[in-house]
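Thread: Newbie trying to understand structure tokens

Hi all, I'm a second-year student working on a class project, and my supervisor (Dr. K.) asked me to get a predicted structure for one chain before our next meeting. I've only ever worked with sequences, so writing a 3D structure as a token string is new to me. If someone could post the tokens and maybe explain what I'm looking at, I'd be very grateful. Here's the chain:
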Amino acid sequence: MDMSMKWVVVVLILLTSGLLACEEAAPFARKYGYHRIDTPEVEERSYQVFDEASCPFTFEFPSYGKISRTSSDSCWADIQMEPFNLKWHITYRNVYETQKDLNTHFEEYRKLVYKHTKKATRIQENPIQGPTGKGTIFEIAGNVGTPAQVFYADTINSQVMIMSLYFRTALKNDSLAPVISYMKEEVSHAVQTLRWK
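---
Reply by user tm_fold:
Sure, no problem. This is what the structure looks like when written as tokens:
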């Protein structure tokens, strides 16, 4: 094979590979990613005071939260946390007015929490202690709308504050894990700053 023939073969190989390289690549499935959710650093956090006339307690909650619903005749309130598309739902019980003891209230609430077992992968009860009482935070794992619920009682005057976190999003809880962890810290802060009137 002479030199000119070798060049023709090389040129043909290059043209063929160039034409084959121009074909569109077949689509392929991409791995699922997680949504980026930024939470404030500890030093960036600021708070405001929840102090509604119909509620016999006050506590601090994040400054970006907005009280969206209150009832003038009872202590029922919602605090919207818009950056995270969730709300804190606050309720109150006076044990003397209901004529039930504290343990009965706790067991009723506990049964309500355990109704999540259909979708929950785990429910963990963690005792919490604040300067004005004690209670339990229920951490609910899995794709549930309420990843944390709090039962907190003033054992002296038999008053109970109940708080539930509700997400308003279709994201799975593994994607929301940073927000859930962050909100548990904020709930703990609310309990530590809770004062009965």
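A couple of things are worth pointing out once you decode it. DSSP finds four helices and ten strands in the chain. Residues 90 and 119 are 23 Å apart (CA to CA). Feel free to ask follow-ups in this thread.
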